[in-house]
Write a structure and sequence with these properties.
The structure holds three protein chains of three kinds.
Chain A lengths: L12 H24 L17 H8 L1 H34 L5 H13 L2 H15 L5 H25 L3 H9 L4 H30 L4 H4 L6 H11 L3 H27 L16
Helix pairs in contact in A: 1-11, 2-11, 3-6, 3-8, 3-10, 4-6, 6-8, 7-8, 8-11
Chain B lengths: L5 H29 L3 E2 L5 E2 L5 H8 L1 H35 L4 H13 L2 H12 L4 H8 L14 H26 L2 H9 L4 H29 L3 H7 L6 H8 L6 H29 L3
Antiparallel strand pairs in B: 1-2
Chain C lengths: L4 E10 L2 E11 L4 E5 L6 H9 L6 E6 L2 E2 L10 E4 L11 H11 L4 H14 L15 H13 L5 E5 L7 H18 L2 E6 L2 H7 L2 E6 L2 E6 L1 H6 L4 H6 L4 E8 L2 E4 L2 E4 L11 E5 L5 E2 L12 E14 L2 E7 L5 E7 L7 E7 L4 E3 L21
Parallel strand pairs in C: 3-8, 3-9, 6-7, 7-8
Antiparallel strand pairs in C: 1-2, 1-4, 4-5, 9-10, 11-12, 11-14, 12-13, 14-20, 15-19, 16-17, 16-19, 17-18
The chains are: A mainly alpha, B mainly alpha, C alpha+beta.
Chain lengths: ~280, ~280, ~375
């Protein structure tokens, strides 16, 4: 970062204070959550008293909850598989080729990104009913996979843009066909983008509620399990699981970010997850 | 483009296209069909085509009322999220030197922390026994718990603003980062003060990002049903909650489908309009 | 005569690297002064400090009895033409040019008149409504120029404005730029790494090396009387002869000539700069005594490259010394030939890096103080 970027201009104090306030607003509830997961008196009340790990021990003993964690993991992994398996070719199609209807294709693929989850969820529900499929984890997998293709496409597309096209041309020039070029040149270069996309999709799938809400059968995913318990009443145990989810998410996202920016050494533009970028 | 054979094009475009047709277009079409059907008193869906659902939506005032409230909430949330997100993005993009990366990560971390977790957090803070009330009473600022914090449109707006501020931040930050810094220098060089520079150069060039962020926030808030269920209470119901109950206890799938279709068309219409606007404003 | 701009001992560090090592320079009103240097020499940093985009770590910048470095960029009577033009993409050409005047609150009628005048001056009146993205590089450059000049600054800074243009366009723009400067009479401070450009355009050249000024002089002087080996090699082509001096004779390998100077105190060889075009084929053999002050020597021709009006020869002396000579185009030469040069064309130069950084102050009437 050269001095030219800020020219040594100092930030106006009010702007710095305002920004700090925004950060505080963003993190306040999270901090409260974490702190109160150790609160002896449970949720509410002020100030927190009686430090305890009680809620965590209750949490770890709760077998029902952990089976839903397992469900979520399975769904997330399968969801990653579908999203990337379809998002990768979609990104290639959008980045490299031109064909009639490409603009419409792009819009449709990216639609679930911005459409409220309820619409996608309901539509899929009606689809499964019409197709005679019973609701189960399988339908949730299909729902997540479909909704998250757009995330995979966006991430991998961004990675493709940074690829050196000349490498592929060289490969073709030297006699390798498209498939070999893809395996030996394109894919290795995309490795970081794909892993980053996988991390992101995994996290989103673990947290997904809106679409899953309409597609669950007998087995719950973790967020839906938390949701149904919430309806019954708040317990500090939920603070504990929330804190754990928080830590887990932070780890994944930091990892994701590191991978992402590794492909942009020297660049200062951080990527944004919007269709506007395409 | 001639580098890519038709076989290649087919191989990359067809699988996702096929999937999307089967699992997106087809379901949307079914949604479309359902909206024209109705439900019999025996709770069976009757496939007779009619406009009854749409008539119901137009004539029964409750739908317009809730829709109007939803749009009001969505607008408020969008404006608040922009008011919080833009200055933060500007500060980070133009003034953060050493810890820019870290500060950026700090903004996106809440974004990917479970929606549920954050909604739940607000619930525990805003309740009558919650942290906020405890705090106020502890410092003798109030004597009794304040009721309207929770289970009100206020709570919904607060929660959704919290959720969608990072959403507005991201595209605004990206568009600000894209502005070549030498334009700012050129503006100063020509005699414009930092404020004038912001207003005449930086802000106009960041509008695409603002539009993208605002669209995200507005559309996703409008379709949100979780926050109202968590913290909204009866006065905080939004349009999607009606849809949810129509697919649940109230069991009227066709009517629910009709409302959903309207939302879908609204969203697509909005997106198209914004896209057109962005094209007009694009400068590069 | 007081200079328009007076830079005194500017020092700038980036991290632990000293980019400017105490630069001092005076710029006369109305002159076209070029700051010449390689990349990394600090020339752009120097320019940016005058414009106000960088702050010096120490030193002063004076303009009209005002300490410029204390003013923010938007309050300095200085305008810049950027290397990348930096035209505002969301404004039309006309709006770009009007920007500075509008920002300073000038009256609308005046803005209109001056903008039209500026556009006409750079021949961009017809494209006034265009968006910058649609213009070619040369056209953008003109707009950038008009945008800066319309404000009638006391000093115009140009940061390698022609480097992005192709060769022909570049030459054309050089001519236009020079005549423009004469016409408006504004002081131009021009930064470039292209020494031919510097020679063509400037009233004076300030050669910057590694953050310090090597020499400040008119193009002719800097070409004919370089002060250091670096200057001699940077500007045009030259041969550097390393000579031992003793007993009134300078001896560089197999070439020797009368020289009254004394040897260096540290015993290092004395350096002389000899331009290739100063070396010619020796006049018709016969006379054993050199005519006038011509120094003769033998060398073998290794390559002969056709160059239009002249040929460039690579020649090797018997002692192994390799030189370049530029002779009139003629027959192909082979083998050993006899060459000569005039004594006064061997210019004594200091070794690069010796001595303190040069302070290029203006003296009473003409050039830099020695």
């Amino acid at each position: 970062m050269t001095s030219a970027d800020t020219n040594g201009r100092k930030v106006a104090p009010w702007l710095a204070a305002y920004s700090a306030m925004v950060y505080a607003f963003l993190y306040l509830p999270i901090l409260v959550l974490v702190i109160y997961s150790f609160n002896g008196q449970g949720i509410g009340g002020f100030p927190p008293r009686g430090w305890t790990l009680n809620w965590y021990s209750i949490l770890f003993a709760d077998a029902g909850l952990w089976s839903t964690v397992l469900n979520s993991l399975l769904v997330a992994i399968a969801g990653v598989g579908i999203s990337i398996g379809l998002g990768l070719p979609a990104a290639l199609a959008l980045d490299r080729t031109g064909f009639p209807g490409k603009a419409i294709f792009r819009r449709i693929v990216l639609l679930p990104l911005i459409l409220p989850g309820i619409i996608t969820g309901l539509s899929l529900l009606m689809f499964f009913v019409a197709a005679g499929m019973k609701l189960s984890l399988r339908t949730i997998v299909l729902g997540h996979g479909t909704a998250l293709i757009s995330v995979a496409t966006t991430e991998i597309f961004a990675g493709l843009q940074k690829l050196d096209r000349a490498q592929e041309e060289a490969s073709l020039d030297l006699g390798a066909n498209h498939w070999k070029t893809f395996c030996r040149v394109t894919l290795p270069n995309l490795r970081v983008s794909i892993i980053a996309a996988a991390l992101l999709i995994f996290t989103l799938s673990m947290d997904e509620i809106a679409v899953s809400f309409f597609l669950i059968g007998r087995e719950n995913t973790l967020p839906l399990e938390i949701w149904s318990r919430l309806r019954r009443g708040i317990t500090p145990e939920l603070n504990a699981i929330s804190t754990l989810i928080l830590l887990f998410s932070i780890a994944l996202i930091v990892l994701w970010y590191r991978l992402r920016t590794r492909t942009e050494r020297g660049s200062q533009t951080a990527p944004a997850l919007t269709p506007a970028g395409m | 483009m001639s580098m890519y054979t038709r076989a290649y094009k087919a191989a990359v475009a067809v699988p996702p296209l096929l999937w999307v047709v089967v699992f997106l277009l087809l379901p949307y079409s079914i949604l479309f069909c359902y909206s024209f059907w109705s439900v019999s008193p025996l709770q069976v869906i009757v496939h007779s085509w009619n406009f009854d659902n749409y008539r119901e939506l137009l004539h029964n005032p409750i739908y317009a009322l809730v829709l109007f409230r939803s749009m009001r909430i969505a607008t408020t949330v969008t404006l608040l999220a922009l008011a919080l997100g833009y200055p933060l993005a500007y500060c980070l993009s133009f003034f953060a030197t050493k810890r820019k990366d870290l500060l950026y990560q700090l903004v996106i971390i809440p974004l990917w922390v479970s929606y549920l977790v954050r909604g739940y957090a607000w619930k525990t803070i805003l309740g009558s026994d919650g942290v906020l009330n405890g705090f106020l009473q502890y410092f003798h600022l109030t004597r009794h718990p304040v009721e309207f914090f929770l289970y009100s449109p206020f709570a919904v707006i607060l929660t959704l603003t919290h959720i969608y501020t990072p959403f507005t931040f991201l595209p605004i930050y990206a568009s600000l980062e894209h502005i070549p810094r030498n334009l700012v220098e050129a503006s100063h060089d020509l005699g414009a003060s930092p404020f004038k520079t912001f207003w005449r150069v930086v802000f106009p060039l960041s509008i695409p990002g603002v539009l993208a962020g605002a669209t995200f926030a507005f559309v996703l808030t409008l379709g949100d049903f979780l926050a109202p269920l968590l913290v909204g209470g009866p006065s905080g119901i939004m349009i999607s909650n009606i849809v949810v109950s129509l697919f649940g206890a109230a069991y009227n799938w066709p009517l629910g489908a009709a409302i959903s279709l309207c939302m879908l068309l609204l969203v697509v219409g909005l997106l198209t309009a914004v896209e057109r606007l962005e094209k007009k404003l694009s400068y590069s | 005569m007081t200079p328009l701009l007076s830079i005194r001992s500017l020092i700038k560090r980036f991290g632990d690297r000293e980019v400017l090592r105490g630069v001092s320079l005076d710029v006369a009103s109305g002159e076209f002064l070029t700051i010449l240097g390689e990349s990394g020499s600090g020339k752009t940093t120097l320019l940016r400090m005058i414009a106000g985009f960088e702050q010096p770590d120490s030193g002063e910048i004076w303009m009209d009895n005002e300490r410029l470095e204390r003013l923010p960029a938007y309050q300095r009577p200085v305008n810049t033409v950027f290397q990348s033009y930096a035209l505002f993409p969301h404004l039309s050409v006309r709006e770009n040019v009007a920007y500075g005047l509008r920002a300073q609150g000038a009256a609308r009628a005046e803005i209109h008149a001056r903008v039209e005048q500026a556009l006409a001056m750079v021949k961009m009146s017809e494209l006034a409504r265009q968006a910058p993205a649609r213009l070619s590089g040369g056209q953008q450059q003109r707009v950038a120029l008009a945008r800066a000049l319309v404000n009638r600054p006391k000093l115009l800074l140009l940061d390698e404005p022609l480097s992005a243009l192709d060769a022909n366009l570049r030459r054309q723009m050089q001519t236009e730029l020079k005549s423009l400067q004469r016409e408006v009479g504004i002081t131009f401070l021009f930064v470039t790494h292209d020494q031919e450009e510097a020679m063509a355009l400037s009233d004076r050249i300030a050669l910057l090396r590694a953050g310090g000024l090597e020499q400040v002089a008119t193009p002719r002087e800097i070409y004919n009387r370089p002060e250091t080996a670096y200057v001699a090699q940077f500007i045009g082509q030259t041969n550097i002869l390393r000579a031992e001096i003793g007993g009134g004779v300078a001896c560089a390998g197999s070439i020797a000539w009368r020289c009254g100077g004394s040897a260096n105190s540290d015993g290092a060889p004395a350096l002389f700069s000899l331009r290739p075009e100063s070396i010619r084929l020796a006049s018709a053999a016969g006379t054993s005594s050199p005519s006038g002050d011509a120094v003769r020597f033998r060398a073998r021709v290794v390559t002969q490259t056709f160059g239009g009006a002249s040929d460039l020869l690579e020649i090797v002396c018997p002692d192994g010394q390799a030189l370049r000579a530029r002779v009139l185009s003629g027959d192909m030469l082979e083998g050993e030939q006899r060459f000569e040069f005039d004594l006064r064309d061997a210019v004594a130069v200091r070794a690069t890096g010796s001595g303190a950084p040069f302070a290029g102050a203006l003296s009473a009437d003409k050039g830099p103080a020695q």
